[in-house]
Design brief:
mainly alpha
Length: 206
């Protein structure tokens, strides 16, 4: 179930990212019209065409919302399984248990430390990554729903600081998920066997 949810997320995230950037291209700025956020440096610059999906605003919205529900269902199935099976205990990051191990594992990947720290089925850095990615996905979903129905769910939009702030959070969540994916791929590249095991199962980590 974990591997299935993992791989189902690949096409879903690609489609949602591409269609989301096409929607963003309709107003490629963050903040209210006439008062853009000063911290965002790319105002008025739409994302590159090769990163976008949907062709136009309505087409992108159709892709984004249709696939978004599949993403939510996949996430729910994944977490229901983790809770039901008890798998969440070894995949969830607990600072008191995992912080030191995560720092040591990061030092090992950066070649600062020569030997990896002792670890179980998952190390502290993996648990931090899994938990962080899940939290990012949760924030992305909530902020996406807030900007999808900002009037009907005004309380949710207000929780993010308003429609414009929720829009910024949604884009930042996408960027951070993208960075997580790049880091994930790089770490897999350091251990090529793990890619095969992520597909076949085997006895190794994802």
């Amino acid at each position: 179930m974990v591997r299935t949810a993992h791989w189902v997320n690949v096409p879903l995230l690609v489609i949602m990212a591409g269609s989301g950037l096409q929607i963003f291209a309709a107003f490629p700025s963050l903040g209210t019209r006439g008062e853009p956020y000063g911290w965002y440096p790319f105002h008025g610059q739409p994302p590159p065409a090769w990163l976008r999906l949907g062709g136009w605003l309505a087409g992108a919205r159709a892709w984004h919302f249709a696939v978004g529900w599949l993403f939510i269902l996949n996430g729910l199935a994944y977490w229901i399984y983790l809770v039901w099976s008890g798998e969440w205990r070894r995949r969830s990051f607990v600072p008191r248990r995992d912080a030191r191990n995560a720092i040591q594992m990061l030092a090992y990947y950066l070649r600062i430390r020569k030997q990896p720290p002792a670890q179980g089925f998952y190390n502290g850095l993996q648990r931090l990554a899994y938990t962080g990615a899940s939290l990012l996905a949760f924030v992305a979903v909530l902020s996406g729903v807030a900007i999808y129905k900002p009037v009907q769910l005004h309380w949710l939009a207000a929780a993010f600081g308003g429609y414009d702030a929720a829009r910024a959070v949604h884009l930042l969540a996408l960027v951070m998920l993208g960075l997580f994916t790049v880091a994930h791929v790089l770490l897999v590249a350091l251990h090529p066997r793990s890619l095969v095991e992520m597909i076949t199962g085997g006895a190794a980590r994802e």
